[in-house]
Amino acid sequence: xxxxNPFSSAPGTVPKPAPPQAESSTAVLSPPPETEAAxxxxxxxxxxxxxxxxxxxxxxxVAGVLLIILxxxxxxxxxxxxxxxxxxxxxxxxxxxRGICSGLGLLDIWxxxxxxxxxxxxx
Length: 123
What we know:
Layout: H1 43-69, H2 80-83, H3 86-92, H4 95-117
Helix pairs in contact: 1-4
């Protein structure tokens, strides 16, 4: 019986080298194939991007201002939704919770204006 394994335990036998495998056309680290240069965005796309950034900054600023001011007004705790939940009302009226909401408002304003300051046109 012949051993199909090329690494035989018999002394004096040399294993046959494996046949070379065909190289594939794409390697793992090969650069991507040359493609056509991407065409620049149209005027409509540029203006839509500008409007979307403007709306993001505007909504972030308004929501931030509301989150800074609203927790410290009487409307924050004296509203219809909290009258039926006294335990939730006590949590919402806590100064720590109000401070967290105001901090989130500051963070929201900061994110909006950071986006406005770092806006750039796509070339």
